[in-house]
Specification:
Helix content: 25-40%
Strand content: 25-35%
Order of helices and strands: EEHHHEEHEHEH
Radius of gyration: 16 Å
Length: 167
């Protein structure tokens, strides 16, 4: 289970030093999460916020797995962002665990506010707390701005990734 964490973020639309909280997502958060996933050029073509049934089934699988940490960032009494952190046990690196950050989204009106930075910093700290020795993420090749964002936070483009759709 993910531990609650509180930090400060600088929002253009909200007072400086507005606190935000990171908490484990609940089934009630599914509509907001899906809406954030669909709110960009890539997500608009692959997400269907009008049909939440497949997301509810996926949420049940995620929620039942102790290595899955689907979280919500809240600020000003509303859902402001989300990410999915997965802990992957492994044999490489002397039996070390690593974490994988996926599905990072910040509400459109809060992008550029600093919340994304704070959310990734939370994920890195949580990965350390969970005993991971490495944190990794992937980003679609077309998301050039996201690549700059991750590099600014200390991530390195160290590998070439491959995917194969199975549907």
């Amino acid at each position: 289970m993910t531990t609650d964490s509180t930090g400060s973020a600088n929002f253009a639309q909200e007072p400086p030093d507005e606190e935000f909280t990171v908490r484990r997502a609940t089934a009630e958060d599914i509509p907001e999460i899906v809406a954030m996933l669909a709110d960009d050029a890539l997500g608009a073509g692959r997400e269907t916020p009008s049909d939440l049934a497949p997301y509810r089934a996926a949420f049940d699988r995620i929620d039942a797995d102790p290595n899955q940490h689907l979280v919500i960032a809240e600020s000003g009494g509303r859902t402001a962002g989300t990410l999915h952190l997965t802990v992957i046990p492994g044999l490489s690196r002397r039996g070390s665990a690593r974490s994988l950050i996926e599905a990072v989204r910040i509400h459109t009106d809060l992008r550029g506010s600093g919340l994304g930075t704070r959310l990734i910093e939370w994920a890195v700290a949580e990965s350390r707390r969970l005993g991971c020795v490495l944190v990794q993420l992937t980003s679609d090749a077309t998301r050039v701005e996201a690549h700059r964002f991750y590099e600014r936070l200390g991530f390195q483009a160290s590998h070439l990734g491959f995917k194969m759709p199975l549907d």
